[in-house]
UniProtKB/TrEMBL annotation:
Residues 172-283 form the Ketopantoate reductase C-terminal domain. One of its GO terms (cellular component) is cytoplasm. It is an enzyme of class 1 (oxidoreductase). Transmembrane segments: none annotated. Pathway: Cofactor biosynthesis; (R)-pantothenate biosynthesis; (R)-pantoate from 3-methyl-2-oxobutanoate: step 2/2. One of its GO terms (biological process) is pantothenate biosynthetic process. Pfam families: ApbA, ApbA_C. It comes from Halobacillus yeomjeoni. The lineage of its organism: Bacteria, Bacillati, Bacillota, Bacilli, Bacillales. Belongs to the ketopantoate reductase family. GO terms for molecular function: 2-dehydropantoate 2-reductase activity; NADP binding. PANTHER family: 2-DEHYDROPANTOATE 2-REDUCTASE, 2-DEHYDROPANTOATE 2-REDUCTASE-RELATED. It catalyses: (R)-pantoate + NADP(+) = 2-dehydropantoate + NADPH + H(+). This is 2-dehydropantoate 2-reductase.
Length: 290
């Protein structure tokens, strides 16, 4: 397949590396320096050895024709991508955490697909990513689109599983529960994901946040709480993406994640109200790109 990937941070590099081994991948980046590096060196993914070759372009030069375009920028940069001329008729797959983007991507492009990433990835440089946790990517179409099953089957490999999910809301909301609990708590306390299980006070706060999210999203608390604890255990040595944003002085995705639970409303969510303010307070202290 011919694939376009917008953004070459942790997830963009990871996706381009694996897909580039079997398909033709074009990567769209913001910076000339990164474009030159990718054209020259391809992408290296630790702990693997051989780099993958990709074609690199600047986002503001416009898009080529692709079978699918994959958007891997953070929620805070999504609006910059949505105002570019996304091609009509081409499926655009959005891989952001959270659900704050669902409404706006439907307005901005005519074939929006969404996905959830269960890998851990850390950008080490403009052309190098560390695959810190192996998982899978699930993808779903917001409106019915028969191309998605075939695309998932073509992209899927044992080494980098990509699965089709029937129900986008079910897929995104289940991941949202995980992110609305693990991400802000680890960011607030500056601890790795395992602290959700090992610190009894954090575990109690996690349970409260999980209860609130499940009642708003109408999901089974016992199912999601079990699943969340398994994910915290599987990723116990990871820093969550929100903790990384705080450490690096970047804006977090708190509004698209926990803010979505508050906005959706219908139930009192005092723990979410507290955690959103707490993360904004940390952002304000660390501000560099606010
Ligand atoms: N990393 C992880 O392990 C996981 C991440 N996710 C989710 O995946 C999404 C992406 O996260 P992640 O890869 O970690 O984020 P990063 O910050 O590592 O990467 C985002 C990239 O987008 C680039 N970018 C921003 N605006 C544009 C633009 N207009 N055109 C082209 N490129 C642009 C940035 O470029 P520049 O550097 O030049 O600013 C940066 O390289 C997030 O929603 C995150 O929550 C989900 C699960 C795990
Ligand atoms: C699952 C989890 C919490 C893994 O770190 C994640 O998705 C993130 O950090 O954004």
């Amino acid at each position: 397949m011919n694939i376009g990937v917008i953004g070459a941070g942790s997830i963009g590099l990871l996706v381009s590396y694996y897909l580039g081994r079997e398909h033709q991948v074009h990567v769209y980046v913001n910076r000339e320096e990164q474009k030159d590096g990718l054209s020259r060196n391809g992408i290296t993914c630790l702990p693997k050895e051989d780099p993958t070759s990709v074609q690199a372009h600047l986002t503001n030069e416009g898009y080529h024709n692709h079978d699918v375009l994959i958007v891997t920028v953070k929620q805070s940069h999504l609006d910059d991508v949505l105002v570019t001329d996304l091609p009509d008729g081409t499926p655009v797959l959005f891989l952001q955490n959270g659900m704050g983007h669902v409404e706006k991507v439907q307005t901005a492009c005519d074939v929006p697909w969404v996905g959830v990433v269960e890998h851990g990835a850390l950008k080490m440089g403009d052309t190098e990513v560390h695959h810190t946790g192996k998982g899978k990517i699930a993808i779903a179409s917001i409106a019915p689109d028969e191309r998605i099953t075939e695309t998932a089957a073509s992209l899927n490999t044992n080494d980098f599983p990509i699965e089709f999910h029937e129900d986008y809301y079910d897929m995104l909301s289940s991941k949202l529960v995980v992110n609305t609990v693990i991400n802000p708590l680890t960011a607030l306390f500056g601890l790795k994901n395992g602290s959700i299980l090992t610190n009894p006070y954090i575990n109690e706060l996690a349970e409260k946040l999980c209860e609130e999210a499940c009642s708003v999203l109408e999901r089974s608390f016992s199912y999601e709480w079990n699943r969340l604890q398994k994910i915290a255990d599987n990723t116990k040595a990871n820093q969550s993406s929100m903790l990384k944003d705080i450490i690096e002085g970047r804006r977090t995705e708190i509004d698209a994640i926990s803010g979505y639970i508050i906005e959706k409303g219908g139930h009192p969510v005092p723990y979410h109200r507290f955690i959103v303010k707490a993360i904004h307070a940390l952002e304000a202290e660390n501000r560099r790109d606010l």
